[in-house]
Structure formats: C-alpha cells, structure tokens
Amino acid sequence: MRTKVFSISHLLLFVLLLASVIPLKATSVGEDDTAPDRTRIAFGSCNSQAEPQPLWPSIVAAQPDLWVWLGDNIYADTHTMDTLASKYNQQLRQPGYQQLLQSTPITGTWDDHDFGYNDAGKEFEKKAQSQQKFLDFMGVPADAPVREQEGVYRTYTIGEGNRKVKIFLLDVRYHRDEFNKLFDLYLPNYGGDVLGEAQWQWLERELENSDAQINIIASGMQILPNGLAYSSWSAFPNARERLLNLIQTTHPANPILLSGDRHVGELARIELEGYQQPLYEITSSGMTHHREPSKSGNRYRIGEQVGALNFGIFDIAWGENLTQVTMQIRGVGNKVLLEQKLLFEPYTSPSASL
C-alpha cells in the first residue's frame, strides 16, 4: 500500500516539475478562492511610507492568514531614532495597512533602509536602538525574548499538527560584515559573514528541531542569485554556501526561501542533496516602487522578472497524501503575474521510525 501511494505521488510531482514557469496574463484571483483546508501567507517588501500604497486593498481581499514583511518596510535612512519612530508611525497610520492590521497577524524582518541606511550592516552605531523601534512597529511584546538579543531573528509558526508552517525570520543586517564594493559592483567578500555566530547556532537548532511540514526561510537579501550588480548573499560566498549546506545537513521538511529587496518579483531554484524537490526562492519586492526587469544577474532564475508593483502569496492546499503549494507574485487587483505550483508528500521525521 505504501509503495502504491509513493508511485502515484512521484508521478504527479514529476508532471508538475516539467511545467515551465512563465509570467501569466493579467488574470485576477477572486475573493472567494479560499478553502477550509488551506493556509495562505502573503508577503512583500520595499514599501515607502511617503508614497502611494495601492496594493493593500488587493492584499486584504486575498484574505491571508498571515502577512510577512521582508524588509525595507519603511524608508527611514536615518541615524536619528525620533525620525525612525515617526516614519514607522506614519506607516501604521496608513489606511490600507490599518485595515490589514485589523484582520491579519503580522510578522517579518528588516533590511537596510528600515534598519538604518542603504547597505548598512554591523557597523551601524544605532542598531540596538533601531531594533527596539522595529519590534515596536511589529507589535512585539515588551517582554519578548527577542527584545534582549542582538538582532531581530526569530521564528513564527502558523498551524499545528500535520498542517504546520514554520517561518525562520533571518536578520541579515545586525551582524553582517561590510560589502566589498568597487564602484557599483558587489565583489565577493569570502571572509565576510552575514548572520553572526549566535544567529548561525540558533538557526541550526531551529532547523534541526522543526516538526513543521513546510519550512520557510525568510531573508531581506536574496540568497540564490549570483549577480554582482546588487547586494545579496552572493557577495558573501562562504556564508551563502554555509546556509545551503546547513539546510542539507539539518534536512527540514520542504524548505522554501523567501526574500525581498530587489524592486522586482522573481523565482529561482537550485538542486540540494537529499531532496527530491528543488529548493525554490520566491522574491517579492516593490510595493510602492519598482524597476525594469533584467535578463541577467541570476543563473538560477526560472521565468522572467516581474517589473511591476507586487506582493507575494503562498497558498497551501493541505491533503492527506499530497499537499499543493502555489507560489504567486500578484499585482494591483490581485492579478497573477508569476506562478509556480509544487507538490509535497507528508513528512515523517526519521526518528519516528526508530
């Protein structure tokens, strides 16, 4: 009986993996596309509190179970904490965002422009104070353990039992070494680190101990792309390799990468040892401003970049034998601009058979 289930599911998985990923025509997703046996997570990044924010009505209409900020949640670019707090409060007063806050739990991480200023890292002298302002914006309780640590990294779990999703919110700013820049190029800094040793140890423990069916690793900077024209994990090759190796060795069930920063939407994938499914990264960036899409800069890209205002959706349809995950980049009016569907088998910890 077990062999029959696996052969059918593997066939379905193979068929899905053959499908190419292409930007879709301007199709809209209705407000009634929800179901009791689903989990929907929405996410986005690069949101200026000073610019129009036309995506919130579409995000609210999508009825997500959770909203995840991926960094540059505001554009502060300041060393003055009163200015930082004022800009966070401006975003909190935004009518569309207020509507989301009334209906949806919020979590997330930061990137450089809400951490401090462009390309800021561990050298930022106000990072401890900035951390508290960020956690205030996220509504994190005053007595939460993350208030006492150095960095905003933490996990968020949604669902329970065999319908659990765990989100690892990485902090790629507080401990990140300086970029090795030459003019506008981000050259490899082989000796540089991104997370800091305490965060690495935390991440290893959390990955090893996760019993979630789906594990989402969220980073302000992109992880898979390898271009030099912008900031990403590729600027720190050894740290990037360490992260991918850590996923392989800890082997959490069904890992997916989530990122922002780039002012475009994008999908990428890479093969990892020990997984039948490729490791996918979905990037959603550009909630209030975007750039023209590029043809280069990411050898792992599938499909094309989305050069439009966008947010992302994880739609998880839970099943007894197979779970379908639909990853989408959506635009104004819930238009689907990019999509990838995945099939996952129920995960059983190796220790369960001992």
Automatic annotation (TrEMBL):
Span of domain PhoD-like phosphatase metallophosphatase: 54-284
InterPro entries assigned to the protein according to its UniProt record, in alphabetical order: Metallo-depent_PP-like, PhoD-like_MPP, PhoD-like_sf
Pfam families with a match to the protein in the record: PhoD
Name listed for the protein in its UniProt record: Alkaline phosphatase D
Species per Swiss-Prot/TrEMBL record: Pontibacter akesuensis
Lineage start: Bacteria, Pseudomonadati, Bacteroidota, Cytophagia, Cytophagales
